[in-house]
Amino acid sequence: MTANSLFSEADLDADAPLVLNGDPRPVRLAVIGKPVSHSLSPRMHQAVLDRLGKDTRYVAISVEPGRVAKCLSRMAKAGFIGCNVTVPHKHEAFDACDEHSDAASTFGVVNTIRFRDDGTIFGDNTDGAGLEAAVGEAFNLRFSSARIAIVGAGGGAGRAAALQAARSRATSLLLINRTTSKLRELTDKITALSPGTTVDTVPLDDCEGLRSAFASCDVLINATSVGLKPDDPPPIPAACLHPKLAVFDMIYNPAETPLMRAAREIGAPAANGLGMLIHQGALAFASWFPGTPHAAPTMRRELMD
Ligand code: ATR
């Protein structure tokens, strides 16, 4: 165990609860990933656990690829309630579960796990619903009646966003990707899930095509990693945006990405991904502690401090 509360699979001693720096409360929740030391999940979940007076610690556990199933089984034996799963383990965690929620089955990846009393592992995915809640909160917009554009739809995050929009029966989806061949299977899946949703694809380098397609979109979601580095350009040329196109960037660090800045400069509303992080976390918390007060306000306060 290291000073910053980062554990590894080796710290999970089956049959004995995990403890942290002499804290009498057992560790019964965690986020697993690699790397995971930067994760904000321990902070935001612990704030809610403490506020509710729960006798539980939430930590980060670094897990090697290929070891997820073994780690989950050790966690179950050590008395864990559940865990969150972050990159690169969401597929591996899906395969390790005995049963899945509808959302997890649709996305094919898991970000929330619950260890059931009967020894089985239940896999859920709150990323899509967390995104929908965050976009709704930021722009007062419902996926069920929205025209949604997603840049980076060919990646893992963009795929989940598009499938969530299909689950919610969005009016239309505009899928944008550098490599458009990656969108074929996704387009078919969206149509099967929601035949009433109009699906179009546009390559990232077709500025004219983007500009005209954006005229009939309400929100643009950035699901690429472009914007994480300070000198990144916006993933979409600023000239394609318009003032009525709200921009939601899944990135939350930096708090204002180049895409958000470009949107705000022409008077369009923009929000970063912090709300998505918070809402996916609050939904995970609710799955471990049903009936507890909505966790999002406490999580937000903790992260704003
Ligand atoms: P994953 O989420 O599956 O791990 P990723 O490599 O992180 O994938 O990429 C996520 C998304 O960001 C993809 O849609 C990717 O576009 P491609 O499918 O064409 O690779 C997109 N992406 C990453 N870097 C990009 C860049 N510099 N410009 C445009 N899109 C980019």
Primary descriptors:
six-stranded parallel sheet, alpha/beta, 305 residues, 11 helices, 2 domains, Rossmann fold
Task: Tell me about this structure.
- The chain has helices at residues 41-51, 68-77, 90-96, 102-107, 127-139, 156-167, 184-193, 207-214, 258-265, 274-288, 296-304; strands at 6-8, 27-33, 57-62, 82-85, 99-100, 112-115, 121-124, 147-151, 172-177, 198-203, 219-222, 246-249, 270-271.
- β12, α9 and β13 (270-271) form a beta-alpha-beta unit.
- The radius of gyration is 20 Å and the shape is globular.
- Helix content is 36%, strand content 19%.
- α1 (41-51) crosses α11, α5 crosses α6 (156-167) and α6 packs parallel to α7.
- The structure holds 2'-monophosphoadenosine-5'-diphosphate (ATR).
Our count of helices gives 11
Number of strands: 13
CATH architecture of the largest domain: 3-Layer(aba) Sandwich
The molecules bound to the chains, other than polymers, are: 2'-monophosphoadenosine-5'-diphosphate
Query: For the CA atoms, what is the radius of gyration?
Result: 20 Å
> What strand line-up does the widest sheet have?
1-3-2-4-6-7-5
Stated plainly, the CATH topology of the largest domain is called: Rossmann fold
Largest sheet: 7 strands, mixed
* Residue share in β-strands: 15-25%
